[in-house]
Amino acid sequence: MLDPVPPAVALPSSRRPISVPDLLVALGVVLLGVLLLIGTNQIATSGMNTVVGPKVFPLIVSFGTLGLGVLLTIGALRGHRAEPATEEDTDPNAPVNLASPGLILGGFLLGTLLLQPLGFVFGTAVMYFTVAFAFGERRYGLIAGVALIVALITYLLFTRGLGLTLPPGILKGIL
Question: What's the CA gap between 99 and 123, in Å, rounded?
Answer without folding.
Answer: 21
